[in-house]
Amino acid sequence: MAGFxxxxxxxxxxxxxxxxxxxxxxxxVNGGADGVTAGIDAVGRGSKDxxxxxxxxxxxxxxxxxxxxxxxxxTYNQDTAPIVVNVSMVHIIGIAKPGIHTAILTPSxxxxxxQAPIVGGGVSGVEIAGFCLGGGATxxxxxxxxxxxxxxxxxxxxxxxxxxxxxxxxxxxxASHLQALLIEDNIFLGASGPKGTITRYGIIAxxxxxxxxxxxxxxxxxxxxxxxxxSLLNDCxxxxxxxxxxxxxxxxxxxxxxxxxxxSGCLIAHNEAQHGDAxxxxxxxxxxxAADENDWMCNQxxxxxxxPDEAM
Length: 312
Known about the structure:
The protein is mainly beta. The chain has helices spanning 6-14, 55-61, and strands at residues 26-30, 68-73, 83-84, 90-94, 103-105, 114-116, 123-124, 127-129, 131-133, 140-144, 148-149, 152-154, 157-158, 168-172, 178-179, 182-184, 187-189, 201-205, 212-213, 216-218, 221-223, 228-232, 236-237, 240-242, 245-247, 257-259, 267-269, 272-274, 285-287, 295-297, 300-301, 304-305. Helix 2 (55-61) links the parallel strand 1 and strand 2 (68-73). The model has no long low-confidence stretch (mean pLDDT 88).
């Protein structure tokens, strides 16, 4: 294990406190989209040659803490939404196919596609990547309800016209802590654009007791989400928001990044935002917290560096 001297590592092993982490079981899901032969949800299946039909069934076979992988292809709406992720250390990966760069997953009703329930002990170490995700008219595509930490959400597309329209891309509505989230390299397509379908926010933490701590939101592309791109409205602490590129839905205050009054210790750095092809009249960066609660550096509007507005 990196970081431990050999004698320390030997001691940990002798005490039974260290085991090398490898890849656990691999499960495969074939949703049967586009007329291909679908998988079957049954005991004894889940292999590459005999895949499951649904991600939900594959999660029943995964073991918490084992570092299992679920590979998904030919997916669309074979899963009943929401897919409830309540297994720690599981990786859910969409596999591309010719002509489509991601696996599509969309609900057929008003639900998020993925949901993590409120769990006192926490569901940790979950990875979701490689999907084109839809959501519900009053829900996000991914909704984290609290007790999650060390989640990695990356290389997904939210709000594509091929999937059902969602209110938000990623919604953090935690009633308990959400800690050490890494949200990176995603694309969010808003309904104010020509074909995007997100009707509100790209990423939103909105409940008064959200408690979103020590996470990173970086390198995402957010295009014309009607209410704003990244809104961390309540009790977000030590969040790093960096290197995101944002096409604002309108020339209005807080359309790119908005921090709520109880946010503190956040670093907002090297983000770029713009609406249209002329100088914006309004500042799309907004910080509602008291002066010096959060640190802003090198954020651009067009080609001009901007500090945030501090009042609406």
